Every structure is written in C-alpha cells, then in structure tokens.
Amino acid sequence: MRAVLQRVTRASVTVGDRVVGSIGPGICVLVGISQDDTKDDMEYIARKVLGLRVFNKDLDMWKASVQDAQLEVLCVSQFTLYGKTTKGMKPDFHSAMKSDTSRQFFDDFVVLLGRLYCAEKIQTGEFGAMMQVALVNDGPVTLQLDSRKFSYDAKDPEQAAKDAAKLAAKEQRRSKFDKVIPPSA
C-alpha cells in the first residue's frame, strides 16, 4: 500500500460541480492499493498517516501528528500510485488492486482511520470518480509512504544472480586493492 501525505492549510475534492470532501488545516492523503495488499499493509499506513509528526507544537518543528494537533484528514483513492512507467510511454497499472476489491479495501481503510482517530475528522473523495483535488500545501511538506518499501521492486531470479555475481567481483577487486594499499584506520 502506498500513500502520498501532504500537510495542507486546506484541501477539497470536487466531482463535477459538487464538493464531496473538504478540510481545513490537516493532511491530504493520496492512497494507492496494490493487488497484494493485506490488512497488515492497511494498518501500517493508517498508523503512519495518523502518527507522523509533520506539524509544529508551540515553536518546535516536527513535534505533532495530525492526531496530536486534532486536525482533519482528507483521503483520496489513487490507483495511479501503482503506475509503472519503465516500458514504453503508456503507464502500466497492473500492480494496482482491481476496482471491485479495492473499493472495499479503501472503505475499510477510511473506517480504520476513523476508529483509530475520530471519524468526524476524516473526509474522502468519491471512489472511482473523475475527481479534481485542490489543496494548499503547507510548507510544502510532502511525504511518500510505502508499506512494503523493499518488496515491490523484486528482480527476477536470473537478474538477481547477475547482480550478486557483479557485487562479488567488485568485492574481490576491492580486497586485492586493500592488500596493496591498506585502508586507513
């Protein structure tokens, strides 16, 4: 599960000419759901979203979370966070969870945020709609969150073996060099 968290002075989501979600000071969170995501991923991201200290407390920077400051959260579903752009010019969204299951996953995520914090302070966009997201980024502060930071870019076994062989050869060359010129202490 991925999220882009932005500290905002205000944010809103409009569908057509109708505002479907709006907050004052708080955080706007774009949420991407992978086809491999589980409840553990959901809980990890929910706790990060609510717990990250991105607000000031008194005159101290980075001391308060959205929850500590009792501010609002606007969550917007965004499958494009799983767009791959490595091949060709058209983004590939096959890693994103399909809409029929991701709708329930997103709804469960929003409910979890409300349960962990305060349901009245959580706003959302409209799942699956063409939305216009407007916000004023405060700072600017923008952070990327990923519940599986190191597992999405797994290489195929053949490429991993080639990379391991290159690394071993590099280490061997380095050890020969260290024998000639010992590293300084």
Structure report:
The strands form 2 sheets. Strands 1, 2, 3, 6, 7 and 8 form a 6-stranded mixed beta sheet that branches. A two-stranded antiparallel ribbon has the order 4-5. It is globular and about 65 Å long. Strand 4 and strand 5 form a beta hairpin. The protein has helices at residues 39-51, 99-116, 157-180, and strands at residues 2-15, 18-23, 26-32, 55-57, 60-64, 72-77, 122-124, 132-146. Helices cover 30% and strands 32% of the residues. The model has no long low-confidence stretch (mean pLDDT 90). The protein is α/β, with parallel strands linked by helices. The chain has 3 helices and 8 strands, in the order βββαβββαββα. The longest helix has 24 residues, at 157-180.
Brief characterization of the structure:
This protein has 185 residues and is α/β, with parallel strands linked by helices. Helices cover 30% and strands 32% of the residues.
User: Mind summarizing the main beta sheet?
Assistant: 6 strands, mixed
Report the total helices.
3
Order of helical and strand elements = EEEHEEEHEEH
Radius of gyration: 21 Å
Show unreliable segments. none
Broad structural category: alpha/beta
Mean pLDDT: 90
Overall morphology:
globular
Tell me the strand percentage band: 25-35%
Distance between the termini: 44 Å
Number of strands: 8
Q: What fraction, in percent, of the residue positions are helical?
A: 25-40%
